[in-house]
Amino acid sequence: MQAVLDQLRDSDRLRDLENYSVFGTTTEEDYDHIVRLTAELFDAPIALINFVGGDEVWVKARVGLDVQSVPCDIAFCSYTVLDDKPLVVPDLSRDDRFSGNPLVTGEPAFRFYAGAPLRSASGFGIGTLCVIDSRTREAFDERQSRRLQDLAQLVTDKLEQRRLSRLEVIASKLMSATADAVVITDKDRRIAAWNQAAETVFGYSAEEVLGKPLSTVFPMGFDEVDAGGHTCEPGLKHRRTELTAYHKRNHEITLEVSAISWQDERLNLSGLGLIIRDVTEQRIADRQIAFLAHHDELTGLANRNSLHQKMEDLLEPGSHVAPALAVVCIDLDRFKLVNETLGHKVGDALLRQAAERLRAIAGQDDILARLAGDEFAIVRLGAQDEEALSLFAETILAAISDTFEVDGHLVSTSASLGIARYPRDGEDCDTLLNHADLATYRTKIEGRNGYHFFAPDMDGQTLVKRGLERDLRGALKRDEFEIHYQLQFDIASGRPVGAEALLRWKHPVHGYVSPADFIPIAETTGLMVSIGRWAFHKACHDFATTAPGLKLAVNLSPVQFRRDDIVALVREALAASGLPSNRLEIEITESLLMEKDAGTLDALNALKGMGVSIALDDFGTGYSSLSYLHNFPFDTIKIDRSFVKEAETNSDCAAILQAIAALAAALNLTTVAEGIETEQQLARVKALGYQVCQGYLLARPQPITALAELGQANRTAG
């Protein structure tokens, strides 16, 4: 008997039984009618419809026996359900399988049993139709066995009808509820089902398309989805595919389509099922995002990242283009003056017109890019000697010097150019761009509106800078960077409230290198991305473990915003260190904001949403600072040290300090005074209402261990 019970507990069989949702349910007239008919046809006192579970037999319909369930180990149908043919036992007391069964040896002392299995559509035995008698009877002849099987088939048909009806209800509910369009066809690929979402996607009502060929809504490109559809195995899912179709209103739509063929052998039905999602808006957005990843939003030119990638490809070993390559950097002269006097709208329009003039000059194979602000670059391809490049530079200067008509204003400007050639001036992208930039700088300091070719002796510090650049590339791997921290104090109480993280490079030969020397190199070469990530993680870890209660201020480079995912960086560092977000303040400078990158505002808003504070560093030294305070989510403004230093002797600086304090109070912004070096300076900013200060008078930048000791001493003194 144990072997029989093990087979009854087969998970696939039980799952099939569960699909019919009949086990454990109450009586139903359809099944009651069949057991009455069975009892009459076989002149039997008892007729039952049973469903066999893993441990229990559920009596769904009965005549002549008042019982609802029977344990599987004593139920006769436990044997019947595992066979394909009817089981007929003329005398149960003489059958070894049942002679000891309590239903035979005791009340009700059954003697005769005949049962036919109920088989699911998948072929599993899930129940029986049986007749039982307390008297022994003759074995069934062929006609009687066939009749019992026919009656069992009636039950099976009812079950299958029940299952299909249930599936139809479920499918109908799902098709109505899903946001995806669902389209089902018959074997001739005519539309048989069409849900509400399909009406929304295509614009056609169900009445307009039911019975129509699928090509009605997929006039082109459907073969890709349907390839092999007529011959593939039923249920075989096709690879998800994107297709173009047309809405009823005749506009093009992009669809993500998954197709699956289906077949029901018993009903002789087959067809294709499609799940369709309208991705038109998403693909438009994807194309826009992809474009902006490689292009400048304002001018449509390639951006710095794109230029960098294209140059790296050209300079790849084996490239046939590299030997004839020159980089021309172009800076518009006095562009900031245009912004200041005519406004950013005019400045933006000027940049767009300048870009169009450069586009008209650049060769078909040249690479034209906007690097940042008023800086452009052209990578000139083809054999170019110095004379040809000089003529090209003169053409650019002449085009830019022509008066621009911008929004009703006549704007005159000029350009400063610098040229670097491969391989004489550099063998990699960063070096070529850097040397072209140095040549541009030489043009600017010599009066603008001209051009220079890069030369090694152009700047007395060029060789030193090149050496620093070379050493800087391996400094992070050699663990030469340190983070020092300068405490910030609450002016009213004198207690430390935070500290600014400051990057230091301890060169193995030169000792500590000034940040003013190595940070521009790191930014120009792009090394600031990896160095900045290390510094940020290190500072967060230091503060989380060593400086409890203090707020950490970290200045992020514009290069990091352009080339790194700042939001992800902050999220990762906070999670790894355990530093609460409300103890972190991100400092940025106005040079980043002047790029007018929408991604910068999005990133700052995202950081703000995480609970991180945002500070504007060196406030008052840039341009349009008031508009930045209005448009960006700042919590703090840091006053440039030059105002603090000169306020004692310069009445204008003193007035600016006072005005900034009043402005910050009106905007509910925290003010930080930098560069406090004397008691008089501290007294001045305190009298003006500044809340936080830092400077050598109070604390010099120190490693984290010294900062913790100094902070403790100040807390004790306080």
Question: What do you see in this structure?
Answer:
This protein has 718 residues and is of the alpha+beta class. It folds into 4 domains: 2-169, Beta-Lactamase (2-Layer Sandwich), CATH 3.30.450.40; 178-283, PAS domain (Beta-Lactamase, 2-Layer Sandwich); 295-459, 2-Layer Sandwich (Alpha-Beta Plaits), CATH 3.30.70.270; 467-717, Alpha-Beta Barrel (TIM Barrel), CATH 3.20.20.450. The protein is 42% helix and 23% strand. The chain contains 27 helices and 27 strands. Strands 19-20-22-23-24-25-26-27 form an 8-stranded mixed barrel, surrounded by 4 helices. Strand 2 (56-63) and strand 3 form a beta hairpin. Mean pLDDT is 85; it is low at 224-237.
Euclidean distance between termini CA atoms: 87 Å
Helices, by number, come to 27
- Sum up the overall morphology in one term: elongated
Strand content: 15-25%
Structural class: alpha+beta
Q: How many strands, what sense, and barrel or not for the largest sheet?
A: 8 strands, mixed, barrel
Low-pLDDT segments = 224-237
Q: Compute the number of strand runs.
A: 27
Question: Number of domains in the coordinates?
Answer: 4
**CATH homology-level superfamily of the largest domain:** EAL domain
CATH architecture of the largest domain: Alpha-Beta Barrel
Cα radius of gyration in angstroms: 42 Å
Biggest sheet: strands side by side, in what order? 19-20-22-23-24-25-26-27
Helical residues, percent: 40-55%
Mean pLDDT: 85
Oligomer: single chain
- Under CATH, the topology of the largest domain can be stated as TIM Barrel
